[in-house]
Design brief:
Layout lengths: L5 H12 L16 H7 L5 E2 L9 E6 L6 E9 L15 E7 L3 E9 L5 H4 L6 H5 L4 E2 L17 H22 L7 H15 L3 H6 L3 E7 L5 E8 L3 H8 L1 H15 L4 E7 L12 E5 L2 E4 L5 E3 L16 E4 L10 E5 L8 E5 L3 H8 L6 H11 L2 H7 L8 H20 L2 H18 L6 H10 L2 H4 L2 H16 L3 H6 L1 H12 L10 H7 L2 H15 L12 H6 L4 H16 L3 H5 L2 H10 L17 H5 L5 E2 L2 E2 L9 H8 L8 H8 L17
Antiparallel strand pairs: 1-2, 2-3, 3-4, 4-5, 5-6, 7-8, 8-9, 9-13, 10-11, 10-14, 12-13, 14-15, 16-17
Helix pairs in contact: 1-14, 6-8, 8-9, 13-14, 13-17, 14-19, 15-21, 21-25
Amino acid sequence: MRRLTFPAVLLAAALVLSAFPAIAQTPFSTTIQPEWLKQVLPAAETFSDKAGDPPVYSGFRSNPETGEQELVGYVFLTDDFKPERVGYAAPIDSMVGLSVEGEVTNIKVLDYTESYLYSRGDFIDNSVFLSQFRRKPLTDEFRLRRDIDGLSAATATSTAIIRSVSEGARRVARVYLGYEEGSEAERNNAANAMALLEQTSWDAMVADGTIVKMDALSAEGNPFVMNITYIGRPVLGEYFIGENAHTAAKADIDFRAGPSELMLIMPVGEGAGSVYRPYPMSARQGEVTRRVAGGRFANGGDASVGAIVGHAGYGVVVSLHPDIDVTQPFTLIYHTPGGREDASVDYALGGLGLTLARNEPVLSEEDILQAMLAEAGFFQRLQMAPPWGETVWLDVILLGALLSLVMAAFLSKRSAIRWSAMTVTLLYLGFYKQGFLSVSHITSLIKQGPMVFTSNLTTLMIVAFTVITTLIWGRIFCSSLCPFGALQDFLARFAPKRWKIRMPQAIHDRAIYIKYGILALILTLAITSPTVSVFQYFEPFGTIFFLSPSVLLWAILAAILVACVLVERFYCRYVCPLGAALGVISHLSPLRIRRVPQCTMCKVCEQSCPTGAIRREQIDFKECVRCDVCETKLIKKAGTCRHPMEEIARRRKDKPTHEAPDLIPVAAI
């Protein structure tokens, strides 16, 4: 009987623990139950019907001394506040309690359709995460990882909940509690500025340069005019497009590009169209020209509120690159589609706009940080305000060590190092951190853009490592950095050899293309039906590592694990959509596995290949997972390669039946 090794014992324990899914608590309904109101505002005894603008449930209790009903707070629903904050896949509907003292008393998530729901179950029902909102004053910051710890491996979901709660609560507080943000000096400046703005006409702002006009052409060649102005201070944004549109646009840009100076484009004319669209823009100041990236645009509303009414059909908010100093003159450039000549307009802040841009009588911590960022270089800004928020150095160091171990295993071709790397990958990256890559990262990239990766440093590290190594050497990720690949190798190692089945060659050669069909299906749905999620049915590792409560997903996992016991790396061969994507990329890899003339007469590597990618001297590189098996055998000369070609020819008393052009002699390896 074969003795169980320590990795095998750990694997068995992890598999046992993974069989106990959590019990879901989210009701997954927006039909309000009376007891839910009490849960988020415990001090209230009775509640009114929902009313007001914004709509709220008012909570009351009896005064113990007078017996009269007194107001204790409000309850609101986040889906009443537009635009709703989108998580990983869709908005997350929540109920929030707010006391008259300006504290968030509690929150309750009512419904959501995040992608992780299908593989991890009700992962938002996390008492540690939700408890951070209890009795949290609005005067506190609501920043992910700094003030509130997010859900594990769910940055987008955590951010959406935090933003919808904080933005909704502050809006309710402003309307019903007279809550005002900022220092008294800042509030006074804003009030005075609004008074001056309300006394100024649109034509006067055009005349004094507060608003400038740029003549432009659409992609179809139709003319229109861009009315452009500075809205880098809240009072300016609220004046031109209204509080709600300005708050939503600023929040979107803060999340994607960080706090920055804002400009407002108000297009009008035949070529402007009637719905929001970003425009290809650049900003030039002196010798510096900075392109406005896609993440620096936000919807400025439908022109139904504010000074924009009657002057444009919608607003486009643009975040300027930190290298552009708005207190100095600069030029905005519109890159006309279709290769036509660019349009441009000079802009120089003056009057009230310049005063607001310079006047900061009370500098907050955030203001100081932004001033430092404006003067900092790229790497300093990356250190001071990275897009992923606060850097968790322990996670970065541990992941860096694992990536180094994977590369050490690959470069050294030492089996012991590779098994060590796979053990760490399975236990740490799989069961502990749930930090593996998935085809869902590709679909999210399609739906949301690069922010899916840049919002999480460890994910960005794994993505960068995977893409770079695949482009150079092939699918190293599949060899030692994929937790489910490691699990398959452990199963193949410890399962009895008599259970193993060799897939008939004709079936194998056709079945390997199933995973490419699965990849095409998932990507097609991501483009055509973004709310439809099917990847969880083809990626069973989400089931085991996230402890999914779905019986169907566990049944799929069990079937695939049985298949992996019978056919080595069955999932990698025929099902894995991420492996298919990496296989396509590996076509570009220049550094491939070397072959020698002796390979034309030897099947040692072919019979040992876990993915069936070898036919004598030929390797189907898109199916190769760079497991080192064939390279190790070549180094050790475990097959026919141990003999010189002359001796082989003499023994066969004949020349080789076919030649292998451009093959590398053993001595060159």
